[in-house]
């Protein structure tokens, strides 16, 4: 199908509302890196934080926008993912590799999430996020994670569905995802 | 944390850009129902359609906005999910039950997706969507689905990550998800 240019309807400080062929959507130029990180003890790293759009505390895999930090625009995607992981969780990855890149809500926005596999983890700090963030870190053993997430859900937390994609891929490792 | 009201920055025909406590986001009042549907032959129903925000053809599980059809505002969520499934895929569900309800991108929008399990499927038509949609239906056997999705991905299709959540839950059935 031929591509057509988008018309800008409104430019906010962070978000831009566009329209293409009569279809409104949010333009999102920076992708999000979402990190699948198992500790040496086979625990998945999860982060808990309050999210203003939904007015709920969420449980998510560590993630961050790529290329939005002043002075770090030229940082590689994997370096940025490693930095986000360390800031949010206090764990540093010895190895990072790119996984699948997917749209979060293809009818609503142009936002993409790039999954990143973090391996050879070493704990180097407490985590908790940068100055603008208030993050609680969780390390959940593989055997307990289904029940742990269900319990949080029933307690009223919002559960990021990317966690379940991460769990599926952890059981069914892709042959290769990095290239498109 | 105390809730605070959102300020509207821009109202489009379909989307509204809001701000709450200095955080911009897209307000989405209608949830999306996303349907996990295995045929009697153990094939997962997937739909293929072009998505303007990302300018790519996507592979997704069947899904639709709930409560956005004139005259159907009072339709129950499960009835709407069954209608969407039948419109998009041509398969009618004998039983529908609610699964987990999750935010698609909690930092970007207030959009929620309610997963719905469709069971006892019977094929009653060709599918393809309503007058505004152009949908191709796929029925992929469980044993082939990982490779099929990887191949589509490498061919340049966008893959909806909700598919992988659906696959995880299909292998790890939740005890109960409907209530929050």
Give a brief outline of the structure:
2 copies of one chain form a homodimer. The first copy, chain A, is 18% helix and 39% strand.
Topology:
2 copies of one chain form a homodimer.
Chain A: E1 7-11, E2 16-20, E3 23-27, E4 32-37, E5 43-51, E6 56-60, E7 63-65, H1 77-89, E8 91-103, E9 112-123, E10 136-141, H2 145-154, E11 158-159, H3 162-171
Parallel strand pairs in A: 4-9, 6-11
Antiparallel strand pairs in A: 1-2, 2-3, 4-7, 5-6, 5-10, 8-9
Describe this structure in words.
The structure is a homodimer. By secondary structure, chain A is an alpha+beta fold. Chain A has a single domain, classed as Nucleoside Triphosphate Pyrophosphohydrolase (Alpha-Beta Complex), CATH 3.90.79. Chain A has three helices and eleven strands, in the order βββββββαβββαβα. In chain A, the strands form three sheets. Chain A has a four-stranded mixed β-sheet with strand order 7-4-9-8, sandwiched between helices. In chain A, strands 10-5-6-11 form a four-stranded mixed β-sheet, with helices on one face. The first copy, chain A, has a three-stranded antiparallel β-sheet with strand order 1-2-3, with no helix packed on it. In chain A, about 45% of the residues are buried. Chains A and B meet through β2, β3, β6, β8 and α2 of A and β2, β3, β6, β8 and α2 of B.
Question: What's the CATH C level of chain A?
Answer: Alpha Beta
Output the helix-strand order of chain A: EEEEEEEHEEEHEH
* Span of the ends, CA to CA of chain A: 19 Å
Shape of chain A: globular
Beta-strand segment tally of chain A: 11
Q: Tell me the strand order in the biggest sheet of chain A.
A: 7-4-9-8
- Gyration radius of chain A, in Å: 17 Å
Strand percent estimate of chain A = 35-45%
**Which fold does the CATH topology of chain A refer to?**
Nucleoside Triphosphate Pyrophosphohydrolase
Q: How many domain modules of chain A?
A: 1
Mean pLDDT value of chain A: 92
Contiguous helical run count of chain A: 3
């Amino acid at each position: 199908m031929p591509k057509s240019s988008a018309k800008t309807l409104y430019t906010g400080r962070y978000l831009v509302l566009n329209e293409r062929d009569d279809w409104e959507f949010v333009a999102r130029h920076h992708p999000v890196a979402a990190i699948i990180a198992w500790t040496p003890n086979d625990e998945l790293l999860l982060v808990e934080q309050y999210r203003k759009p939904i007015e709920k505390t969420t449980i998510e895999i560590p993630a961050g926008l790529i290329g939005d930090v002043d002075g770090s625009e030229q940082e590689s995607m994997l370096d940025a993912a490693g930095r986000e992981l360390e800031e949010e969780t206090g764990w540093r990855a010895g190895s990072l590799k790119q996984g699948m890149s997917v749209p979060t809500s293809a009818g609503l926005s142009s936002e993409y999430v790039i999954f990143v596999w973090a391996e050879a983890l070493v704990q180097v700090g407490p985590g908790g996020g940068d100055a603008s963030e208030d993050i609680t870190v969780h390390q959940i053993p593989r055997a307990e994670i289904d029940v742990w997430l269900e319990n949080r859900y029933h307690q009223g937390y919002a559960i990021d569905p990317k966690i379940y994609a991460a769990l599926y891929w952890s059981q069914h490792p892709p042959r290769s995802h990095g290239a498109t």
